[in-house]
Amino acid sequence: MGIINQVREKQPLVLNLANTVTQQRVADVISYVGGSPLMTTASNELAELMQIASALVINIGTLNDELLPLYIEAGKLANQLNKPVILDPVAVTLPYRGEIVTALLKEIKVNIIRGNAAEIAWFANQTVAGKGIDALDNQINEAIVLDAAQKTGAIIVQSGPTDLIADGQQVIKITAHSDLFKINVGTGDMLSALIGTFSAVSADYFAAAVEATELFANSGVKAAQIVEQKPANFINALLDCLYEAN
Ligand SMILES: Nc1ncnc2c1ncn2[C@@H]1O[C@H](COP(=O)(O)OP(=O)(O)OP(=O)(O)O)[C@@H](O)[C@H]1O
Ligand SMILES: Cc1ncsc1CCO
Ligand SMILES: [Mg+2]
């Protein structure tokens, strides 16, 4: 049985420390594949929520000083309960964000990191051109992705025209893509949430990352055919394709 079927059967609750820009799209992705999204920013309820959640997705897109303790507290709870932690390190190449992520990784174990080429290179102490939330150079450099996996101990998903998924030993490439992904802000955040949802029901986090990334790419290809290059319609078609996936 594919992991998508397990998601539909188990309807896992996926807890999100989301950014405030794209959280509706993130909630939609989780719900359309059969999961149950929940967003919080309240420290007081984290212990209760991590008990019922099956995965934690931390997206630092709109971080602030108060959020670092929340990320750490939620991450520690997830680690203690053996639930997967997915990190979306939005614009981590910027100094303040880099400081926050460095501090976070000292305190918690992150199981999967999903970012663009510029963000992933940061974890390998390398520089790949980027501006804010966007990568400007979609390098397909397997050595960087492997190094990022080894340095962090996390599974790495580098998104771009070709997606790369790596643990410390192997790299898998996914080449199916649509250029309508790129214009739509938050498709990376959606992918991180989809990976979180798949890892919520699969003990094999590498398989979860691969299957979720493949499904997202293939759904994008189908959606692009349906909407004939209309980028706003693309998101709706993408969600419809995720809803229909099996
Ligand atoms: N140039 C491109 N052509 C086709 N697909 C792309 C391209 N760039 C990214 N993608 C796809 O778009 C999705 C989002 O990846 P991207 O690398 O843009 O994430 P991101 O920069 O974190 O995005 P965001 O910050 O908007 O959420 C992924 O499914 C990725 O495979
Ligand atoms: C545009 C933007 N700014 C902070 S987060 C975000 C959404 C992409 O991650
Ligand atoms: Mg991003």
TrEMBL record:
Cofactor(s) annotated in UniProt: Mg(2+)
Reaction(s) catalysed by this chain's protein: 5-(2-hydroxyethyl)-4-methylthiazole + ATP = 4-methyl-5-(2-phosphooxyethyl)-thiazole + ADP + H(+)
Enzyme Commission numbers on file: 2.7.1.50
Residues binding substrate, per UniProt: M39, G186
Binding site for ATP: R114, S159
MF GO annotations: ATP binding; hydroxyethylthiazole kinase activity; magnesium ion binding
Function (record text): Catalyzes the phosphorylation of the hydroxyl group of 4-methyl-5-beta-hydroxyethylthiazole (THZ).
Similarity comment: family membership: Belongs to the Thz kinase family.
GO BP terms in the entry: thiamine biosynthetic process; thiamine diphosphate biosynthetic process
The protein, known as: Hydroxyethylthiazole kinase
Pathway: Cofactor biosynthesis; thiamine diphosphate biosynthesis; 4-methyl-5-(2-phosphoethyl)-thiazole from 5-(2-hydroxyethyl)-4-methylthiazole: step 1/1
Main enzyme class: transferase
CDD domains: THZ_kinase
Keywords of this entry: ATP-binding, Kinase, Magnesium, Metal-binding, Nucleotide-binding, Thiamine biosynthesis, Transferase
InterPro entries in alphabetical order: Hyethyz_kinase, Ribokinase-like
